[in-house]
Amino acid sequence: MNGLIPTPDFSVGLINVPAIIVALAVTGLLIIGTTESARVNAILVAIKVVALTIFIALTLPVVETANLSPFAPNGMFGAYSGMGIVGAAASIFFAYVGFDAVSTAAEETKNPQRNVPIGLIGSLAFCTVFYLLVALGAAGAIGAQPVLAADGSAVQPGSAAFMAACALTENADRLVCSNEALAHVLRVIGHPQVGNALGTAALLALPSVILMMIFGQTRIFFVMARDGLLPEGLTKMHSKWKTPYIVTLFTGIAVAIAGALFPVGQLADISNSGTLFAFFMVSIAVLMLRVKDPNRHRPFKTPAVWVIAPLSALGCLALFWNLPHDAKMVLPIWGAIGLVIYFIYGFRKSHVGRGIVDVPELSPDAPPGPVPPMPGAPAPGSDEERR
Known about the structure:
The protein is an all-alpha fold. The chain has a single domain (15-352), classed as Amino acid/polyamine transporter I, CATH 1.20.1740.10. It is 59% helix and 0% strand. It contains 13 helices and no strands. Helix 7 runs antiparallel to helix 8 (192-227) and helix 10 packs antiparallel against helix 11 (305-321). The longest helix has 36 residues, at 192-227. The radius of gyration is 23 Å and the shape is globular.
C-alpha cells in the first residue's frame, strides 16, 4: 500500500519556494514599518545569540588541539580561487555586509553622529568574537579537514567536483559536507537533541539576515531616487505606514526571484563581488573628497584617513581577486549595465550633479546636528513617531 502513495522529493527542483515566501514576508514587514521590523529582528537575533552561546558552551570544553592540525591545510591562497585563508575571507565577507545596513539607517536614527558609529563598531566587535568562538568550537571539536577528490586532488568549494567528493563514503561525515554544520557538530559530540533544536533556531533566525539586507538596499535605492539617479517615483511614502513602500516592494520582489533561482552560496559570492567593489570605491572617494572639498561639512569623520582608506582599498582588491572566477566575472556585466543606466538617465537627472542641494548635510552652512528624517516620516516626538 505504501508503494502506491506518492512521496514528494524536495531534494531537487528548479524553484526555491521557501525563499520566495520568506523574502516576500520580510518585504511585507518592512512596508508595515521600521519600528515593527526592528522589534521582530530583535527577537530573531536574540534566538540566534542564545543558540550560538549554547553551541559555544557545549563545544569549547571538548576542543582538541589535534583537530586544529594542520591549522591551514589549504594554505594562504589554496589551489583555486575561493580556497585557502584569503579565499575563505573573501567568501565570509558576506557575513559582514549586514553591518553596512547600519549606516544606511542614519536618517532614521536618533542622534546618528553618536549612535551610528557605536552601532557599527560595537556590533562588528561583538559578532567577530562570536564568529571566532563558533569556528574554534566547530573545528576544534570534530576537526575540519579539507575534502579531496577520489584521486586525492583538491576541489573548489561549491563546484561539481566538490559535490562529487562529498558523495564519497569517506567524506560523508566531513564538516564541510554538512548542510547544517553546527547542528552536525553537536550530533557528533553526543548532543543530538540540542543539535536538532539549534537547526530549528537557525531556521527561525535566518529571516533576520534577509530583513537587514533588504532594509539596507531599499534605503540605498531611496537615496539614489531622491537624488534623481533612479526614477523619483520610488521615493513615494505610504500614507499610513510612512515607509518607502514602492522601492521596498521592488527590492523584495527582486530578492525573491534571485533567491528562488540561484544557489545561496553563488548568490553570496556574487554579492561579495559587488560589495567589495562598492567599498573600494568608497575608500577612493573619501580620499578624493578630502583633496577636492576639504571644507565640506562632515557629520561622520574617519580617523587617520590617509592610512585607513588606502588599506581598505587594498584589502577589498585582495579579497575580490580571491573570489571564485564566476563571481568575479558577474561584476563587469552588472557594472556595465549600471553605467548604461547612469549615462542614459541618472547623469542628466542627478540633483547633486546639477548643483541642486537636495541633501541637507551637503549645504555649506549646514549646522552640526542629527540628520533630518526622510520625507514623509513622522515628526520627532509625534504620536506616529512614538508608535
